[in-house]
Inverse folding.
């Protein structure tokens, strides 16, 4: 019976071939660690976000008068298990960025952005930006004080663009301040266009991955045949590890959802939006703090801060062309200079994130400035490091 | 040896799949629960109405769960029907024609409910007497608390009526 | 081993970040609040800045007479059959806020606060615009009134306490409780409509609320919230109530959470066993 069905489907959809190509005979290198599971984790979290999102969407009301109560009363109190879906959605959004940062950090450390994987990096970074836009638009929807003022300040940034800025910001908001029109258009973007784009780019990202294959810890280029010989098949070997990593991750995730969710739901956001009263401290969610700190880091010049802010979100896109050193200088494991730069960058990113939440005064302002410079310093150091490594490679100084 | 290994692996795989199905079941249960009517909707499904405010011969319409409920205080000339009478003299029926769901009108001079859609007629007790309606007007679940009728809860009077 | 080492690195990085953006930032941003709490030793249920009430034992019968003479033109006392002198709307229009019914006030207000409040409302409440004037009563008269108020007061809890202690200015609309005073009158009197308290516990937390209610001016200088002199028992009761209404699914969350975590533990075991099985011949 089962076999008959499979045969019937196979004649029409070639499912056994598909299974072979995608799963059983897709090979990964053996020298990879659990960080290579982070990609599947992002897909898992995305699915969790879509499903929980659909269920909060069923009771959410995108109207400035109704939004706050529809979230905090209807969903959180009245709907059976409504609070579960809301907690999952809020914590999921936060954890998505944790997983994304780990996934991107893995990519940078092991040089997974280098030729021939440039498209992987570029589509991946676009996915990160799209996810940021989704998170930002979604954060406005509960219409709490922090939702409101985060949207207000970030949209205000557009007004600093020369000439068109002041008109542009009104156009984006559909009002002189963030108001009902802003809420409904952010809502539309959050639930339709942005998730759709994320799906499209995920498909491209995965397609590109199937073409060039996974990188490995040592950055050794491998042909498909080499991988087949020395590697492990996706099913069942890689996936068995993936399932284990997923379970551990979900344990951690649900612990946060049920017992430690406050980091993802700012207390100030439980006060309804009030456009006549700014909260004493405004800060974005933690995953934007680093970029936000670059904006504030150039505390002596608004223009520089804005340029730095935009650059900080654009410059990683060019990573594959800033760092061009050839094999064996792919993975940080075999690149002492790059390894130092990488860890400085990670420390700097953490510092920026922490500083982003602190009040930008006195010592913190200067620390923010230095940390912002170091952020760009990493990307600017890459061409120099590449040059040195290229020389080493040419002179045969390979370990 | 090799065969045994495969079966062990399969067993674990099936156990894992089964356990995942259990989890999926839990998620589906939570999803199922979210679609239940909200507490306030459920609370609005119970309506209290004081019968004594209806004058003899008068018809009042009460809204209950989005449907009109006819409360008619009958006079002796409207006939009687022991098994469809609430508190000795009232007709309490859902005002929706049992034919195709239109709302019948109360015709005072003839003392009947007449459906404007297909001409079905019901007497003052709500029993179908002419036209296409297949059965009498429905009696909503109710409970009596003194002279107040509680629509949406079942009391002993309603249960007795349903049995009889 | 290598895998665990990587996990450790990630845990350390995430841990530092978490510590930086939660406890550290919190301690720096809310420093002035902690300082104020420490400075005034909040919550101070003795209201030590006001001093004790005079050691005079009041006479409830005389207090009732005083009440009718000095208080009843604005306040009602339903428990003893004294109705409010005007309806809420008129009262709000003339005083800015509906004067409270005083039936139970002595059960949830500290005694020395009550004394000082009657003596000089603006000083005790630390709210200069308060519409109740100092009546110029002497200590004996005041203590008699307090004795009378005590004789009528019964202990109230939860929603009832909320309505009597906070409900003249604040509502909790998710509980269908609305402020006694109309919003526009409050706006005129206080400068803004006081916040709805349905989920205030989630927004502010017990630590802050207890201190704030105890001495509003210390935590939010210039606020229109008067000090109301809640005693310890009433404050705790109120906190319990505010917590319940802001987070009605607390118990369910704990229960479901434990079930889900137990489920995941079993899943971890199963997936680990399967992984072991598959990888046995790989290394």
């Amino acid at each position: 019976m089962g076999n008959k069905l499979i045969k019937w489907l196979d004649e029409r959809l070639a499912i056994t071939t598909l299974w072979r190509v995608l799963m059983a005979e897709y090979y990964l290198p053996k020298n990879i660690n659990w960080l290579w599971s982070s990609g599947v984790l992002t897909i898992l979290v995305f699915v969790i976000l879509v499903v929980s999102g659909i269920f909060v969407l069923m009771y959410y009301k995108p109207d400035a008068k109704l939004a706050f109560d529809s979230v905090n009363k209807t969903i959180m109190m009245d709907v059976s298990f409504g609070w579960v879906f809301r907690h999952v959605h809020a914590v999921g959004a936060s954890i998505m960025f944790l997983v994304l940062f780990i996934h991107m950090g893995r990519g940078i450390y092991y040089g997974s952005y280098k030729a021939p994987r440039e498209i992987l990096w570029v589509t991946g970074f676009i996915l990160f930006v799209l996810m940021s836009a989704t998170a930002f638009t979604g954060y406005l929807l509960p219409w709490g004080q922090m939702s409101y003022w985060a949207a207000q300040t970030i949209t205000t940034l557009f007004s600093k663009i020369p000439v068109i800025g002041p008109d542009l910001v009104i156009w984006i908001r559909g009002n002189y301040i963030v108001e009902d029109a802003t809420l409904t258009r952010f809502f539309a973007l959050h639930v339709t266009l942005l998730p759709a784009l994320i799906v499209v780019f995920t498909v491209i990202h995965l397609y590109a991955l199937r073409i060039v294959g996974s990188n490995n810890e040592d950055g050794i280029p491998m042909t498909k045949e080499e991988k087949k010989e020395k590697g492990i098949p996706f099913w069942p070997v890689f996936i068995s590890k993936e399932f284990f990593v997923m379970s551990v991750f979900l344990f951690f995730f649900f612990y946060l959802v049920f017992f430690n969710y406050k980091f993802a739901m700012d207390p100030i956001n439980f006060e309804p939006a009030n456009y006549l009263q700014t909260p004493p401290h405004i800060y974005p969610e933690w995953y934007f703090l680093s970029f936000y700190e670059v904006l504030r880091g150039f505390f002596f010049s608004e223009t520089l801060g804005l340029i730095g802010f935009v650059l900080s979100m654009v410059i990683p896109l060019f990573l594959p062309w800033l760092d061009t050193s050839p094999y064996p200088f792919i993975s940080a494991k075999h690149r002492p200079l790059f390894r130092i730069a990488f860890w400085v960058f990670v420390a700097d990113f953490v510092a920026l994130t922490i500083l982003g939440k602190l009040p930008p005064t006195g010592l913190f302002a200067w620390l923010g400035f230095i940390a912002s410079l170091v952020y760009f310093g990493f990307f600017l150091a890459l061409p120099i490091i590449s040059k040195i490594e290229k020389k080493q490679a040419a002179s045969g100084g390979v370990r | 040896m090799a065969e045994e290994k495969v079966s062990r692996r399969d067993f674990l795989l099936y156990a894992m799949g089964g356990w995942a199905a259990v989890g999926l079941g839990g998620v589906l249960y939570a999803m199922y629960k979210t679609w239940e009517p909200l507490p306030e909707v459920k609370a609005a499904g119970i309506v209290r109405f004081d019968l004594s405010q209806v004058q003899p011969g008068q018809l009042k319409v009460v809204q209950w769960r989005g449907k009109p409920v006819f409360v008619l205080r009958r006079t002796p000339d409207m006939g009687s029907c022991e098994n469809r009478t609430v508190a000795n003299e009232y007709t309490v029926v859902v005002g929706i024609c049992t034919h195709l769901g239109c709302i019948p009108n109360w015709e005072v001079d003839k003392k009947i409910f007449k459906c404007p859609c297909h001409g079905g007629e019901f007497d003052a007790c709500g029993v179908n007497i002419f036209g296409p309606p297949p059965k009498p007007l429905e009696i909503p679940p109710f409970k009596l608390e003194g002279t107040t009728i509680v629509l949406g809860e079942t009391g002993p009077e309603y249960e007795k009526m349903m049995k009889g | 081993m290598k895998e665990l080492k990587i996990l450790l690195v990630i845990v350390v990085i995430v841990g530092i970040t978490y510590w930086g953006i939660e406890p550290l930032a919190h301690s720096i941003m809310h420093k002035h609040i902690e300082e104020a709490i420490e400075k005034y030793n909040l919550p101070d249920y003795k209201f030590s800045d006001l001093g004790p009430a005079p050691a005079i034992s009041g006479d409830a019968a005389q207090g009732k007479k005083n009440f009718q003479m000095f208080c009843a033109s604005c306040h009602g006392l339903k428990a003893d059959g004294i109705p409010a002198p005007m309806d809420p709307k008129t009262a709000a229009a003339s005083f800015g806020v509906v004067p409270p019914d005083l039936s139970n006030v002595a059960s949830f207000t500290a005694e020395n606060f009550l004394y000082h409040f009657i003596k000089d409302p603006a000083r005790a409440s630390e709210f200069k615009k308060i519409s109740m004037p100092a009546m110029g009563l002497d200590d004996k008269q005041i203590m008699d009134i307090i004795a009378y108020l005590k004789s009528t007061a019964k202990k109230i809890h939860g929603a009832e306490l909320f309505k009597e202690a906070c409900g003249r200015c604040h509502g909790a609309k998710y509980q269908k409780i609305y402020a006694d005073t109309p919003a526009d009158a409050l706006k005129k009197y206080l400068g803004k409509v006081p916040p709805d308290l349905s989920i205030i516990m989630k927004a502010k937390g017990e630590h802050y609320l207890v201190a704030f209610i105890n001495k509003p001016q210390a935590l939010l200088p210039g606020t229109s919230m008067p000090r109301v002199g809640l005693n310890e028992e009433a404050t705790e009761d109120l906190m319990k109530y505010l917590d319940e209404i802001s987070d009605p699914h607390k118990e369910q969350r704990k229960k479901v959470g434990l079930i889900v975590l137990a489920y995941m533990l079993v899943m971890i075991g199963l997936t680990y066993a399967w992984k072991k099985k598959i990888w046995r011949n790989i290394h």
Notes: Chain A touches chain B at residues 55, 58-59, 74, 78-82, 84-85, 236, 243 (CB under 8 Å).
